[in-house]
Design a protein that fits this description.
Helix content is about 15%, strand content about 35%. By secondary structure, the protein is of the alpha+beta class.
C-alpha cells in the first residue's frame, strides 16, 4: 500500500474539478485506467503551468504508483489535487489525490516521480532552489533517491500483443503519451475477460525506462498470474527484447 503524505498548511496545492466524461469510461460506465492516468497527468501538468515551473525544462514521468479504492463512474463529479512530497537532485515526488466532490471520499491516490530534463538534449538537470520556495518545505523534508534502471529482458512466459503506436498517440515531446500506455492494459483485460467493477480495489505501477514514439515502434507483451490474494496483469513494452516501459496491475481479492 502507498504511504500517502498529507500536505502541510504551507504546501502549495493545485486542484481541478471535473465530471467523468463519456470518452473516459468503458462500456460499464467506470473510469478506464488510462483515463485515470490522464487525470493524474493533467492536474500535474496544469499545476506546473500555473506555478510557472514548466519553463525550467521538460518534466518527464519516470514512475507512477496508483492506489485505487474505487473508480468513479460516468457523470460523477470529482476533485483532483496535487502537491509535492519529496525531491532529489533532478527530480520531485508528486502526490495526487482524486476524491468524490460531493462526499469528499478518497477514490484514488498516486505518487509519481517526475525528472527535470533539459529541453534541448533530454539530459537530467538539477532542480532549481526556487521550486522549494514555490511548493513549501514538504518537498525538501523527504529526500527521494532513484536508481538507474537496469536493463530488463521480456520474460519468456510473456505473450506478444498486436499493438502499434498511432501518430495521434504522441505528445508535444514526440513521445507516446504517458497515459496512452495504459490503453494496452485495458485492451488486454478485455481480451482475457478480466472484468473489474467501479468499486474494485487495485494498485497499478508504471515504470518508464525509455521513451518511444511513432517513428520508433515497440513490441508489446503481457502475462497474467494469480495467487490467493491478487490477480496480476503485467504489460511490457520492449525494443529488441529489452523492456522500455512496464505496467503492473494488481487486482486485490
Amino acid at each position: 500500500m502507498l504511504d500517502i503524505r498529507e500536505p502541510l498548511t504551507t504546501s502549495r496545492q493545485f486542484q481541478l474539478n471535473r465530471r467523468v466524461a463519456l470518452s473516459d469510461t468503458d462500456p460499464s460506465g467506470r473510469l478506464r485506467i488510462d483515463a485515470c492516468a490522464r487525470y493524474l497527468q493533467d492536474v500535474a501538468a496544469f499545476d506546473a503551468i500555473d506555478a510557472d515551473i514548466s519553463e525550467m525544462g521538460n518534466w518527464v514521468l519516470r514512475e507512477n504508483n496508483i492506489l485505487v479504492s474505487a473508480l468513479p463512474v460516468y457523470g460523477q463529479a470529482i476533485n483532483s489535487k496535487t502537491y509535492l512530497t519529496g525531491s532529489g537532485r533532478a527530480w520531485v515526488e508528486r502526490t495526487s489525490v482524486i476524491t468524490d466532490l460531493e462526499s469528499g471520499t478518497r477514490l484514488i491516490a498516486a505518487k509519481a516521480i517526475w525528472v527535470l530534463t533539459r529541453s534541448s538534449s533530454g539530459a537530467p538537470i538539477s532542480v532549481p532552489e526556487i521550486l522549494y520556495e514555490i511548493y513549501g518545505p514538504l518537498a525538501l523534508q523527504h529526500k527521494i533517491s532513484i536508481r538507474s534502471a537496469k536493463k530488463q529482458s521480456v520474460p519468456h512466459e510473456a505473450s506478444p500483443i498486436d499493438w502499434q503506436i498511432r501518430y495521434s498517440d504522441q505528445d508535444i515531446l514526440h513521445h507516446l503519451n504517458n497515459a496512452t500506455y495504459l490503453e494496452v492494459l485495458e485492451e488486454v483485460m478485455h481480451q482475457r475477460k478480466i472484468t473489474i467493477s467501479s468499486d474494485q480495489p487495485m494498485t497499478c505501477k508504471v515504470t518508464y525506462r525509455e521513451s518511444t514514439s511513432y517513428e520508433d515502434q515497440f513490441q508489446a507483451y503481457y502475462r497474467s498470474t494469480e495467487d490467493d490474494e491478487t490477480s496480476t496483469v503485467t504489460i511490457y513494452f520492449a525494443k529488441e527484447d529489452i523492456v522500455r516501459t512496464s505496467i503492473e496491475l494488481r487486482i486485490l481479492k
